[in-house]
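Cast an eye over my tokenised protein here and flag anything odd:

===
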Amino acid sequence: MHNPRYAGAFAYGRTRTRKTLDGVHQIKLPQEEWYTLLTGAHPGYITWEEYQENQRRLRENAHALGPERREGPPREGPALLQGLAICGVCGGRMNVAYHVRAFRPGRSVPHYFCQGRSSDSPQPVCQWVPGIPVDQAVGDLLLEIMTPVTIDITLAVQQELQARLEETDRLRKQQVERARHEAELAQRRYLRVHPDNRLVADSLEADWNRKLCALQEAQQQYERESQKDRLAVDEELRTRLHMLATDFPRLWRDPNTPNRERKRLARLLLQDVTLIKRDQILVHIRFPGGTTRTLELPIPSNPKLTPPSVVAEIDQLLDHHTCQAVADNLNSRGFAPGYGNPFHGPMIARIAKDHRLKTRWERLREREMLTLDEMGKRLGLCTDQVKAWRAAGLLRAHLCNDKDEYLYEDPGPNPPRVGRGAKLSRKGQMNENASHHASEVQCEA
């Protein structure tokens, strides 16, 4: 997959070896920095063009950590910029997360987020960008640029470039002809020298060899540059481009077009997209030719997915129930959250936090209820005895959360007392009689 020998090429100097204090390190170099590359040196299993295409596809599909990690293959999800989105904060590649919303039943909603370098060090997420407005804006821009008018402008510019390249090619040919002429002159000078003049012959032979090397280098450079500058546009290609500009909007808007194919179309037209979320979303789009466009999008408002009537009902139920009890009550009465799933305790807690509702614990504390430690200090008991008295009915308590934790009502001026040898049930009856007698005395007074 990576060795150019299977493509019929001879290559040398594909790696560099460096010695450091940590040991010997081998670095792979890009193809432009190889010492020697001779294509067509011997018959290969595949052509050189197929080898180059395989290398490009491998670079695009690389998912492992390393310098080649960039976009990855297009997947089935609806996120248009999957693999193309770049974080404008840290410069890393952004990931995609999908969520299901009740207002979009059966459809995944994409979000682009960047974890920064949290895999190496505990850092917070750089930014979290909603995907629907960004994908919509980028798609509209692609439809805007893929029109017959823009195709004509592009072809006109390309023809101008082709004319300039032809002029450059003519100048390169003149350089090759000049190098060939100088090599021929050096050859004739060498052949005319008398054999007895050894020193003159050696000097002319060395000069002839230099001219031949210069001619070979000029020819190789001419061939390399000519392959890069083949941009001729014939009439058939012009017709196909016009058909593409006409069919592109229909293909893009067709609901039967798979998301994977739509992403492949976007990758042909886009280089990358940098996202920055501040007071608004800045979308910096870079095209393969180097052209850039910047879009400014407003941040979509975060809708309260839970209906206001349900929020008001939660606010009332929290006066008397914990979060899980509130969820069970709402589910039994047919209420449903904005997400479409049944209520549960953590969801009720999150909704209360999002809407700034008082928690069950805060509501009970406002009613001057005591914690377990406060009740133990008030009665001079340990916490286990306080729990036992609550279980026996000597103390009135209320659940404050779903962790089986209670807050206790103030026992008043006549709290239960410690009585040696008396059972908890007897203490409860004695406490009730004492309370009843105290109330009668208060009435008589």
